[in-house]
Here is the input.
Amino acid sequence: MGSGTGAVVDPALKRALRHLRDVKSQQPSDAESVEFADWRESVAGALDALARVLVFEEDRARAGAEAAAALEQAAAIRRRCEARTGER
Here is the structure.
C-alpha cells in the first residue's frame, strides 16, 4: 500500500492500543514496590482490553498470556513487599 491508501483501523483497536501505550508510559521506577504491582495490574487490564479487540486469535492469545503474566508478577511483588513489611 502506498502513502495515503492505508487500511482503516478499527477505532476500538486504536483506543485499546493507545490506552496500553499510556499505561506503559507510567511505569514506576521501583520494580519492587506496591506502586509497581499496581502498575502491572493496570498493564494486565489494558492487555485484556486489547485482547478483546484484536483481529487474529494468535494475537488475542498472546495478549491474554501477557496479561496473565503481568498479574502473576504483580502478585509476586506484593508478596515480597508484605514479607519485607513483616520483617520490620
Observations:
- The chain has a mean pLDDT of 93.
- Residues 68 and 86 are 27 Å apart (CA to CA).
